[in-house]
Specification:
Helix 9 packs antiparallel against helix 10, helix 12 packs across helix 14 and helix 12 crosses helix 15. The chain is α/β, with parallel strands linked by helices. It has 15 helices and six strands. It has a six-stranded mixed beta sheet, with helices on both faces. It folds into three domains: 185 residues, 2-Layer Sandwich (Nucleotidyltransferase, domain 5), CATH 3.30.420.10; 100 residues, Orthogonal Bundle (DNA polymerase, domain 1), CATH 1.10.150; 65 residues, DNA polymerase, domain 1. The longest helix has 21 residues.
Length: 375
């Protein structure tokens, strides 16, 4: 089968059959995100064990079921770089949860490279391959796509099979492969690609949200839930219904004792007057409801204010992680982020902390408790 665009279901099935036969599917996506709740998937690039690269045009109404069968086939390893966003798009496009995933960005962190490295730099470091970046401003929703655009897109999957093999060889040399394989299982979690409950979206608000006391957090929780529900209902980007800073500003009003919120308005991009009025009323009602909550119903901060001795111990624990990472050829960021490390030093039994379980506990967690835990 020649390289190029797949424009119909029979060609997609033929391409997917080839991926299954080879047991490998290197994948990437290109999308457009302008005025919708979710990005619009434009093309899906794929490459197999035979080296053939194809791109599925997702704007032609092609039946995605052959591709869904690839995603959910445990006998086919799916290779992606920085996999989560692509897999989330593919999950919603094909209505299939992925299994047997290999993330080359994650794998890089287990063999002496940064776990945050972009594909272009990683390919150059590991395979001495240079990728041209000539189409970075392409509007992938426009048709027809040029041959140059398609070739550029296919380059993002062309070398992934070789990159995976090289990274696994390095992991084997450093003795970290079993740890990587344990971490790759997170991509098979049934909760990895579903939507976050609106009442939990306040935990993702950026900026000064972390400084809000608990009463303000109750207001932020109510506002973020309204924004999320309306964004889903109206199929609009959540940021159009209010940026994070605006939600935090309103939550501070509640924290400072304001209990009535008539005609709440703030920065947003809605042009539909009816929607603007609905949203203003929704936000005012949400804040008034939050104002009536008792203290026992206020949420707790995601990251508490730690005492100085815990902060100091976490700094020393991070130095230990850096040294241990150099010794093991593991990026320290793979062990834990700053918030997880702080929580673990403060309380090793805090739920769901990665340092408290699996290979991380055996390799670094146990030592952190012995040396740095602040009772």
């Amino acid at each position: 089968m020649d390289e190029g665009l797949i424009r119909n279901t029979p060609d997609l099935k033929e391409a997917c059959d080839a991926l299954v036969a080879g047991g490998v599917a290197a994948l990437d996506t290109e999308f457009v995100w302008r005025a919708s709740y979710r990005p619009h998937l434009a093309i899906v690039q794929m490459a197999g064990a035979d080296g053939v690269c194809r791109a599925l045009d997702c704007q032609l109404g092609t039946d995605p079921s052959p591709f869904a069968a690839v995603l959910s086939n445990p006998s086919v390893v799916k290779i992606l770089h920085a996999a989560h966003q692509d897999l989330e798009l593919l999950y919603h496009y094909a209505s299939a949860a992925p299994v047997n995933v290999f993330d080359t960005q994650l794998a890089a962190g287990f063999c002496g490279h940064s776990s945050n490295m972009g594909l272009q730099k990683l390919l150059y470091e590991v395979l001495d391959v240079g990728l041209a970046k000539t189409e970075t401003c392409t509007d992938w929703s426009q048709r027809p796509l040029t041959d140059a655009q398609v070739r550029y897109a296919l380059d993002d999957v062309r070398y992934l099979v070789s990159l995976r093999a090289a990274l696994l060889a390095q992991c084997d040399a450093f003795g970290t492969r079993a740890w990587l394989e344990e971490d790759l299982l997170k991509y098979e979690s049934p909760d990895a690609y579903g939507d976050v409950e609106p009442d939990e979206m306040w935990k993702r608000v950026k900026g000064n949200a972390r400084r809000l006391p608990r009463r303000g957090l109750a207001g932020l929780r109510a506002l973020a839930a309204v924004r999320e529900r309306r964004a889903i209902e109206w199929n609009l980007p959540r940021g159009w219904l209010g940026d994070d800073a605006s939600l935090v500003d309103l939550a501070w009003r509640l924290q400072h004792g304001e209990t009535t919120f008539p005609n709440v308005r703030f920065r947003h991009r809605l042009k539909n007057n009816a929607q603007r009025d609905h949203l203003a009323a929704d936000y005012a009602a949400a804040l008034m409801e939050a104002a009536g909550l008792s203290e026992e119903d206020w949420p707790f901060p995601i990251q508490p204010d730690y005492p100085a001795e815990v902060l100091d111990a976490a700094d020393k624990a991070y130095e230990y992680l850096v040294a241990r990472g150099e010794e093991l050829h593991v990026d320290p960021a793979v062990f834990a982020n700053r918030a997880q490390l702080l929580a673990f030093v403060d309380d090793p039994e805090v739920p769901d902390n990665p340092l408290a379980e699996g290979w991380r506990f055996e390799v670094v967690g146990r030592t952190i408790i012995e040396r740095f835990y602040v009772p």
